[in-house]
Design brief:
Blueprint: H1 2-14, H2 16-20, E1 26-28, H3 33-50, E2 56-57, E3 66-67, H4 75-80, H5 82-88, H6 90-113, H7 120-131, H8 134-140, H9 145-148, H10 152-166, H11 171-186, H12 190-211, H13 219-246, H14 277-283, H15 292-304, H16 309-325, E4 329-332, E5 335-340, H17 344-347, H18 361-385, H19 390-409, E6 418-420, H20 425-428, E7 437-442, H21 451-458, E8 463-465, E9 472-473, E10 479-480, H22 487-496, H23 502-515, E11 521-527, H24 533-544, E12 549-551, E13 554-558, H25 563-573, E14 577-581, E15 593-597
Parallel strand pairs: 7-8, 7-11
Antiparallel strand pairs: 1-6, 2-3, 4-5, 9-10, 11-13, 12-13, 14-15
Helix pairs in contact: 1-6, 3-5, 3-6, 3-21, 5-6, 6-7, 6-10, 7-18, 7-19, 10-11, 11-13, 12-16, 15-18, 15-19, 16-18, 18-19, 23-24
């Protein structure tokens, strides 16, 4: 299909910097989130290959682990891209994902719009606004595959249309399709599913109100289909929902604390950088932006063709999604006016309190694309009725679409920036450790440095790390991305902040000697280029002796004995192959490991 090909070419163009330096050699820059995305992509084939639980992993934040469903893990996307991950690595899979995400979103919207608009170029414009519009374009810069893979909402619109409007075919089959949409979105993004359910309820009310007394006709069909969807969704998601809410390493409360700052402002709809600070922090830009040209086209079109029920519905839902995106309180520019908004209720409900109201912008773009396609189709029809000729009518309609989209197209930083990945050679030695070895790595994977997760993912998660970059329970079970630090974490933090002075080093030597290999840690590795890396390396040499491996990029210390390590791993993973390693003098070429069967 021509539309899909054009969307794909656009996806490649906006990510040109990811591909120009070679496949899998670069990563999106400006945020740590792409590193986490790479890790999530690596996890799915790794867990499937080992028969591990897909929903939980100790490969990050070992030994406590991480609850994947309570995070932005997009397991369904990871499953679909598993062949790419296995064949070319998770960094390449990430590059493929971010190219396909907007293209697939746009194509699904295009296919949905073809149900309502006969002229394909009008549907193309609507799909372009949805797949490459402000919401997706803003979050896609930082990966955020859980938010930007939005192929299901347009398909769900078609299913809901069949259930509530057309009421044709088997209600059981229609309900099954809706359940499939719900389950699929759950394993892409629980947050976007929650937002979608709110939007679907609002759309149902708007649709029934527009039909007045006609909504009773065929009500039994709709109720049977919806009941089927509820029953099947509940059956399929009962255990995953329990795992999400009460499973190992679940957390309580809103993910980012007070969520009221993660909402749109009135300015954000018309100003390219009118977003609140919280929205900028989460997404890096203004995902709720529509722009004056687009709004003018849609408002004028809605007035001119106010008899079009579909156009009235799409514009009404745009307004509803925009109001919901404003969050709990109305913000004018960056100031809180104190005026309560309908979304206030969501902020105070369990589970829904973690929703970022600004992300209703995804559904705002869907209905805006729908309205744009309808208006452009009407423009073409009007021009043809005035005997303007087929070519002139098409050109006039295309000009209207271009005028509406021009301000939207200028918003994102296209092509997106990317950075080259250069793996420190010292980390390549970690691949020689026994499978499942626990590694304490500096710099710690955290909210300030995510490269360690990329190297771990590229190694096929063959080793586990004590830190991570994910949402985990903190004090009192509250959500945090910073797990409670142990003694070595504090030592590493001192190095990162330049606090390893001669006086502190002397006092930390016994701490390092006692705790370096706690909790079954098999190796401690320091990347010398990290802030404070040379000072930390010197401290470790004083406490642990010469490194087992030392070279220009850093140094690696192995546990002096694997007895405790074998017992630890046996409790968690049964029998496994263990290597006995001899320390090698600094500058040596390896760790001197001889493999033998362990776990006894």
């Amino acid at each position: 299909m021509a539309a899909g090909l054009v969307y794909l070419l656009l996806g490649i163009a906006i990510w040109w910097h990811l591909w120009s330096g070679g496949v899998g050699g670069s990563l999106a820059s400006g945020s740590l989130d792409p590193a986490a995305d790479v890790w999530w992509l690596a996890w799915v084939p790794h867990a499937l290959g080992r028969g591990d639980n897909l929903l939980f992993s100790r490969a990050m934040y070992n030994p406590a682990g991480v609850n994947l469903l309570a995070n932005t893990s997009f397991l369904l996307v990871g499953l679909v891209l598993s062949p790419v991950t296995v064949a070319a690595g998770p960094v390449c899979a990430f590059a493929v994902a971010v190219v396909l995400a907007p293209a697939a979103d746009a194509l699904c919207a295009f296919l949905m719009l073809r149900r309502y608009v006969s002229w394909a170029p009008a549907c193309f414009a609507g799909g372009l606004l949805y797949g490459f519009g402000p919401f997706v374009a803003t979050d896609l810069r930082y990966g955020h595959l859980n938010l930007t893979v939005l192929v299901i909402p347009p398909l769900a619109v078609l299913v809901m249309d069949r259930i509530l409007v057309r009421r044709a075919g088997s209600p059981w089959l229609a309900g099954s399709w809706l359940a499939l949409c719900v389950v699929g979105e759950f394993f892409v993004s629980v947050e976007m599913l929650g937002l979608g359910v709110v939007v679907a309820l609002c759309a149902t009310v708007v649709m029934l109100a527009s039909r007045r007394g006609d909504w009773r006709s065929g009500l039994g069909y709709s109720l049977r289909a919806l009941a089927t969807a509820v029953v099947l969704s509940a059956a399929a998601l009962a255990y995953p929902t329990w795992w999400y809410l009460r499973g190992p390493r679940h957390f309580t409360g809103a993910v980012w604390g007070d969520m009221t700052g993660f909402a749109a402002s009135l300015a954000s709809f018309v100003q390219p950088h009118g977003q609140l600070f919280g929205v900028s922090y989460l997404s890096g830009g203004n995902g709720d932006f529509l722009g004056v040209p687009l709004l003018v086209v849609l408002v004028v079109g809605a007035l001119m063709w106010r008899g079009d029920l579909l156009l009235r519905f799409a514009v009404t839902m745009m307004f509803v999604c925009g109001v919901l995106a404003l969050g709990a309180e109305l913000h004018v520019r960056h100031a809180d006016s104190g005026v309560p908004m309908p979304a206030w209720l969501l902020v105070h409900l369990p589970v829904l309190s973690s929703l970022a109201a600004s992300r209703f912008g995804a559904y705002l773009d869907l209905f805006a694309g729908w309205a744009l396609a309808l208006v452009v189709g009407h423009v073409r029809g009007e021009l043809r009725d005035e005997r303007a000729g087929r070519s002139w009518a098409a050109a006039g309609a295309a000009a209207v679409a271009a005028a509406a989209l021009v301000s939207v197209a200028l918003l994102p930083p296209w092509p997106y920036p990317a950075r080259r990945l250069v793996e420190p050679p010292v980390l390549a030695a970690l691949a020689g450790l026994p499978a499942g070895s626990v590694v304490r790595e500096y710099p710690l994977a955290s909210g300030t440095d995510g490269d360690g997760l990329v190297w771990q993912a590229r190694a096929g998660l063959s080793y586990e790390v004590t830190a991570g970059y994910a949402i985990v329970p903190g004090r009192g079970g509250q959500a945090t991305i910073s797990a409670a630090p142990d003694a070595m974490d504090l030592v590493f933090a001192a190095a990162a902040f330049g606090r390893l002075t001669p006086d502190t080093v002397a006092s930390l030597v016994p701490v390092v000697r006692r705790h370096a290999f706690d909790d079954g840690v098999a190796a401690v590795v320091v990347v010398r280029a990290g802030a404070g890396g040379p000072q930390l390396e010197s401290l470790l040499e004083r406490a642990l002796g010469p490194a087992s491996l030392s070279e220009r990029s850093g140094a690696l210390w192995l546990s002096p004995g694997y007895g405790a390590y074998r017992a630890y791993r046996a409790r968690h993973a049964g029998r496994l192959s263990v290597s006995v390693c001899r320390p090698v003098s600094a500058g040596g070429g390896g760790s001197g490991c001889a493999a033998r069967d362990g776990g006894g």
